[in-house]
């Protein structure tokens, strides 16, 4: 004799506690994935100064790749003192744009261009950079204006990168601090950094106490790759009404060189 199939009982109602637990698990997984991506893949940064104009400038929102030079405590948010040195460490190439922890304050990120590698001798004469006694060639590219300094007229120069192609620097003219220096001997395990806005940059030309000094390898965060979006001067994250008007579409999705 066949027993009629009984209707399936409805599942028990989920309690508030179980819903909250599921939500907490989802948030925890999302945070874990975001943290792993930030440590090992990409880190976003907002540019707060004009020292690297015209490559990046105030208001640019960029992506930094984390795998190029290996990993260190600087790769991890808040720079925790978990270990020293770099895992899978590799030297940057001359001309790379890098983000690093400021040696005198590891809680602060800086962005500059690598000019001197470990063991190099770096000197500036009349604004021209010499590495191991040989000048980095620069080709004049006409006059432009620095919007961060009230549209001050500056001369553009093209300098070659080790990876190929050129990058652009700005020069306000002769006689500025940092145009003529002694010889800097880059220690092993460290790098010499310059800003592209040469007369408006505190970089390795100045000692660590006031500028950047030599940057240890373990302070490298990663290589600046892409400018995703940009707001022009005067836009503020605290003033939503300036967001749309301040957008600069011509600076969106720019590969950084």
Summary keywords:
257 residues; mainly beta; Umud Fragment, subunit A; eight-stranded antiparallel beta sheet; four-stranded antiparallel beta sheet; 2 helices; 11% helix; globular
Task: Report on this structure.
- This protein has two helices and 15 strands.
- It has a single domain, classed as Umud Fragment, subunit A (Ribbon).
- Strand 8 and strand 9 form a beta hairpin.
- The radius of gyration is 24 Å and the shape is globular.
- It is mainly beta and 257 residues long.
- Strands 1, 2, 3, 4, 12, 13, 14 and 15 form an eight-stranded antiparallel β-sheet that branches.
Which helices and strands occur, and which strands form pairs?
Blueprint: H1 16-40, E1 42-46, E2 60-65, E3 97-102, E4 105-116, E5 121-125, E6 128-131, E7 134-135, E8 139-146, E9 152-160, E10 166-171, E11 184-185, E12 190-194, E13 215-216, E14 220-230, H2 243-246, E15 254-255
Antiparallel strand pairs: 1-2, 2-14, 3-4, 3-14, 4-12, 5-6, 5-11, 6-7, 8-9, 9-10, 12-13, 14-15
């Amino acid at each position: 004799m066949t027993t009629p199939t009984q209707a399936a009982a409805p599942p028990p109602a989920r309690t508030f506690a179980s819903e909250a637990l599921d939500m907490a698990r989802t948030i925890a997984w999302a945070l874990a994935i975001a943290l792993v991506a930030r440590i090992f893949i990409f880190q976003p940064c907002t540019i707060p100064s004009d020292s690297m104009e015209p490559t990046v400038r105030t208001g640019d929102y960029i992506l930094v790749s984390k795998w190029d030079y290996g990993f260190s405590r600087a790769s991890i948010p808040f720079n925790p003192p978990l270990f020293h040195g770099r895992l899978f460490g590799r030297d940057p190439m001359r001309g790379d744009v890098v983000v690093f922890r400021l040696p005198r304050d590891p809680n602060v990120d800086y962005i500059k261009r690598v000019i001197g590698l470990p063991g190099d001798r770096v000197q500036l004469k009349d604004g021209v950079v010499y590495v191991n006694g040989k000048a980095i060639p620069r080709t004049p590219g006409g006059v432009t204006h620095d919007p961060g300094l009230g549209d001050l007229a500056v001369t553009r120069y093209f300098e070659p990168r080790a990876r190929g192609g050129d990058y652009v620097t700005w020069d306000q003219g002769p006689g500025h601090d940092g145009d003529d220096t002694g010889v800097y001997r880059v220690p092993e395990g460290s790098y010499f950094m310059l800003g592209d806005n040469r007369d408006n940059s505190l970089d390795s030309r100045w000692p660590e106490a006031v500028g950047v000094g030599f940057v240890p390898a373990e302070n490298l965060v990663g290589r600046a790759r892409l400018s995703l979006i940009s707001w022009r001067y005067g836009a503020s994250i605290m003033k939503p009404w300036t967001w749309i008007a301040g957008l600069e579409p011509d600076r969106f999705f720019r590969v950084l060189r």
